[in-house]
């Protein structure tokens, strides 16, 4: 598992976006390491789009806390899941995330695997997924890592990470 002080792996992730007038642009590939360059990012991950805790508490919490997180120095908030970019876009639209949270696809689970934060949920019909966690990243370096125990939602929520960000100032 990735640790504090480690550099994020240089992986390609995907983001779907709509251009002017609602025309599809994407999915667009990007280098996570390049996106982190000279920036502070908060990356949170969850097992899957449209799942109960993720849809009712995790993502909405970050949308609500986004103004405070940005005011505290976070440049961008990324929500990552082992889903494709089309699903992540549709999920973000259904949750009305706007520009507060960027919905990012780790469709093949390469980022999740590189971090050592995957889990096999095949017994529940979900296949390979991400664990629930949050990372505070500064210029590509992990400054804080909060991984949830199975079935829990206690340390990767927006308010906990907001407290961490504020304490680092």
Task: Write up this protein.
- It comes from Pseudomonas parafulva.
- Belongs to the peroxiredoxin family. Prx5 subfamily.
- By secondary structure, this protein is α/β, with parallel strands linked by helices.
- The chain has one domain (12-168): 3-Layer(aba) Sandwich (Glutaredoxin), CATH 3.40.30.
- The chain has helices at residues 32-36, 52-71, 85-94, 110-115, 158-168; strands at residues 12-18, 24-31, 40-45, 76-81, 102-105, 118-120, 128-130, 133-138, 141-147.
- The chain has a five-stranded mixed sheet. It has a two-stranded antiparallel sheet with strand order 1-2.
- Helix 2 (52-71) runs parallel beside helix 5 (158-168).
- The radius of gyration is 15 Å and the shape is globular.
- The mean pLDDT is 93.
């Amino acid at each position: 598992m990735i640790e504090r002080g480690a550099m994020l792996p240089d992986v390609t992730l995907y983001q779907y976006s709509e251009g002017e007038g609602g025309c599809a642009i994407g999915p667009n590939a990007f280098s996570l390491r390049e996106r982190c360059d000279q920036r502070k990012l908060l990356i949170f991950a969850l097992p899957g789009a449209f799942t109960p805790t993720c849809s009712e508490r995790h993502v909405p919490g970050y949308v609500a806390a986004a103004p405070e997180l940005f005011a505290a120095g976070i440049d961008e908030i990324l929500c990552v899941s082992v889903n494709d970019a089309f699903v992540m876009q549709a999920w973000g639209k259904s949750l009305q995330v706007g520009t507060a949270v960027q919905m990012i696809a780790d469709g093949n689970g390469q980022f999740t695997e590189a971090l050592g934060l995957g889990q096999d949920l095949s017994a529940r019909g979900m296949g390979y997924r991400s664990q629930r966690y949050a990372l505070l990243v500064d210029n590509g370096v992990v400054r804080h890592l909060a991984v949830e125990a199975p079935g829990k939602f206690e340390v990767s929520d927006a308010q906990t990470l907001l407290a961490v960000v504020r304490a680092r100032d």
